[in-house]
Amino acid sequence: LVLLRFSSFTSNLLIITPFTYWIRARRSSPKFIRFLAYGYSLLRTALFHENIGLAEGEKNMIIDGKAIAEEIRAKVLAEAQALRAKGIIPSLDVIMAGDDPGSIQYARSKEKTATKLEIEFRFHHFPEATPEEELINFVKKLSNDPNVKAIMIEMPLPKHMDENAVRMALNPDKDVDGLHPVNLGKLVSGAEGGFIPNTPLAVLRIIDHIGFELKGKRGVIIGRSVPVGKPLFFLMLARHATMTTCHTRTVDLPSITSQADILVAAAGKAGLVTRDMVKPGAVVIDVGTNFVDGKTVGDVDFEAVKDVAGMITPVPGGVGPVTTATLFENVIEATKRNS
Can you give the pTM of this predicted structure? Predict the structure, then answer.
């Protein structure tokens, strides 16, 4: 036990070598090998208190997204007040087509937040049957209006509209969603001056808040969407994490996720991530928002995973509040650029 406690090399030798010969002799199945690997990981965590770089005492920590969001909002309010003192009025124009209840509720919640942050809010609501060309022309009009500082297009749009065509009509310097191809291109290439999509930016803010160093760590993202999975991959890669993206066609998902020092779930499937899929001590960030039996839940089985994860975000109260706060970070930046 003394050797195991103080020598990582010795511990690997003593624990792994016998299992290796046994596995070879038995030609064990992949599932059995995964079971051994998971057991070994648990053993090392118990013996060496390994927590992939987290400070002692930070194990099994539930990350308070509301508190992080409050810190961001305080900074945004201070900047908004400073701009107003110079005669510059921060503003956000939100465009929506259709009557999706979730989108309407989200737009109204942003209006309340904007009011608290002393940011002007203008909501432009178009009927479901609005022709695509009409909406595109309106987006162009706002893009060319010097009094309009920041624009957000609520998704989803009605089925007869091409989201890419509508987004292309937007001035990239007013695109506080960060999803215009110009902004995404800057993100991928590492060029400065682009807006970062809100949810990936929120994940970075959470990572910074908990003091987790991405450099050299193994990161896994479940989900490859344009708003979240793809941009987050490149953002974490830029911080020198070794990244893997998983999706609906990924074979043997648990064997990949269980190797992650930081695991981000953004698949949109309730309870997808279970206890056996998480490396002991890993940081787990749950981006998912699902509605099950009248309750909002994430992609992670929170109750089962919280005891094995080093840190974990809850749903609700995790990534969601931070995402809304980072939107207004972008609004302040857009106001500065366009004034």
Answer: 0.83
HEC sequence for the chain: CHHHHHCHHHHHHHHHHHHHHHHHHHCCCHHHHHHHHHHHHHHHHHHHCCCCCCCCCCCCEECCHHHHHHHHHHHHHHHHHHHHHCCCCCEEEEEEECCCHHHHHHHHHHHHHHHHCCCEEEEEEECCCCCHHHHHHHHHHHHHCCCCCCEEECCCCCCCCCHHHHHHCCCHHHECCCCCHHHHHHHHHCCCCCCCCHHHHHHHHHHHHHCCCCCCCEEEEECCCCCCHHHHHHHHHHCCCEEEEECCCCCCHHHHHCCCCEEEECCCCCCCECHHHCCCCCEEEECCCEEECCEEECCECHHHHCCCCCEECCCCCCHHHHHHHHHHHHHHHHHHHCC
**21-30, 74-83, 98-107: which range is least confident on average?**
21-30
Amino acid sitting at position 222: I
pLDDT digits (tens, 9 = 90+) for 29-84: 555 555 555 555 445 444 433 444 444 444 569 999 999 999 999 999 999 999 99
